[in-house]
Amino acid sequence: MSQILTLRRPDDWHLHLRDGAMLGAVLPESARHFARAIIMPNLVPPVVTARDARAYRERILTALPEGMDFTPLMTLYLTEETDPDDVAAAHAEGLITAVKLYPAGATTNSASGVRDFDKVRPVLEKMAEIGLPLCVHGEVTDPEIDIFDREAVFIDRVLDPVRRATPGLRVVMEHITTRDGVEYVTANDRDLAATITTHHLVINRNHLLVGGIKPHYYCLPVAKREEHRLALRRAATSGDARFFLGTDSAPHTDPLKQSACGCAGCFTAPNTMSILAHVFEEENALNRLEGFTSLHGPAFYGLPPNEAQITLTKGDTVTYPDKIETDDGPVTVFDPGFALHWQVT
Ligand code: DOR
Ligand code: ZN
After folding, report:
1. Cα separation of 332 and 321, whole Å?
2. Closest residue by CA, ligand 1 atom 7
3. CA of 234 to the centre of ligand 2 (A)
4. Counting ligands in written order, which one lies closest to the CA of residue 218?
5. Average pLDDT over residues 150-179
6. Is the dihedral of CA 43, 142, 216, 314 positive or negative?
7. Per residue in 240-269, pLDDT tens?
8. Which of 16, 222, 256, 261 to mutate to test the pocket of ligand 1 (most atoms within 8 A of CB)?
9. Using alpha carbons only, how large is the chain's radius of gyration in Å?
10. Domain containing 220: what range?
11. Ligand 1 nearest atom to the CA of residue 264, by list position
């Protein structure tokens, strides 16, 4: 007998759609299941002004196939030159939903990010005043800090001081990968939430490195030890509204991944809902999937949950294409390493 699960339509609170041919190819993969997504601004050049965000939003809506219902929630890329008034005006006109902080050099296309946090203080203060959330890529970039420790050190050295110095600033710790991240969120009950990706619920650093290096499992923040993956699974399936889905689906073409210096990013848009249903079922938490994918995010962002519903059905093995083709080249779909049985129907 097949099992059926009906959820409010999910949203993706952290998504990379890119631009041009890649945007055209990956957008339908998200829009098929997700009603809204927070769109990451790390294009080349990045989306730094309200004007950039307006133009990018138009390109996304133009690329959306006829008949698909999808709302991009735009973000601005915080730089040391960001103008607090431009941010406030973009927020007031409903153009942007958040501002994104990348420490300079932390990840793909983050060269224009922040080096000196004192320089962005006026923007953060304005954001606290108007209630505009800051989405944070939480890794230090100090070469002395081991890559597996960069999230935990960021919390101590950067995030906690910034939050203390800016009361009322609403922060989303993006794609947390550690027990330290989970504990920091649960220890702070105001103005703080975290997104968790699909892939970090599935892989640990052994999956990435044992038996040969797996470029399609390389992302940032990099997957950590198993104890951290288990902490993320507990948080995601706990029902705690401070944790919600941000897939960080981040397409790169195969030549850019399968390289001596491969790009970071897992492309999970096509099969995320199938994988999440599998994970939540394993954790005996199918009744909490809707909170994670469809309720907690809107609640944090002060938006209504979606009225539309999706149905997931459990049955025979569901297969997804290994790759999607784009005019820029093939993009490999994240392989969870186990058979999937839940399908959005
Ligand atoms: O794995 C990642 N890919 N992490 C990021 O922070 C950026 C993203 C990308 O843009 O490819
Ligand atoms: Zn990302």
Report:
1. 9
2. 108
3. 22
4. 1
5. 97
6. negative
7. 999 999 999 999 999 999 999 999 999 999
8. 16
9. 19
10. 3-344
11. 1
Q: Is 219 in the pocket of ligand 1 (CB under 6 A)?
A: yes
CA distance 99 to 76: 5
> Is the CB of 108 inside a 6 Å radius of any atom of ligand 1?
yes
Per-residue pLDDT tens over the stretch 181-225: 999 999 997 899 999 999 999 999 999 999 999 999 999 999 999
What pLDDT digit, counting tens, does each position of 324-343 carry? 999 999 999 999 999 999 99
Report the catalytic residues. Answer: 248
Instruction: Give me the amino acid identity at 189.
Output: D
Nearest alpha carbon, ligand 1 atom 4:
220
341 phi/psi in degrees, rounded to 5: -125, -15
User: pLDDT band for position 111 (50/70/90)?
Assistant: confident
pLDDT band at 275 (very low <50, low <70, confident <90, very high): very high
Instruction: Assign 316 to helix, strand or coil.
Output: strand
The closest residue, in CA terms, to atom 2 on ligand 1 is: 265
Which residues lie closer than 8 Å to 334 by C-beta, 6 or more apart? 198, 199, 216, 266, 267, 268, 271, 275
Ligand number nearest to the C-alpha of 103: 1
143 contacts 106 by C-beta, under 8 angstroms? no
Mutate which of 12, 17, 23, 42 for ligand 1? The one with the most ligand atoms within 8 Å of its CB, which is 42
Ligand 1: centre distance to CA 250 (Å): 6
Q: 25 near 327, Cβ under 8 Å? A: yes
- Total number of domains in the chain: 1
Which residues are within 8 A (CB) of 51 and not within 5 positions of it... i.e. 6 or more apart? Answer: none
Residue 245's domain is classified under what CATH number? 3.20.20.140
Nearest-angstrom CA–CA distance, 70 and 63: 11
CA dist list (Å): 203 to 149, 152, 247: 17, 19, 14
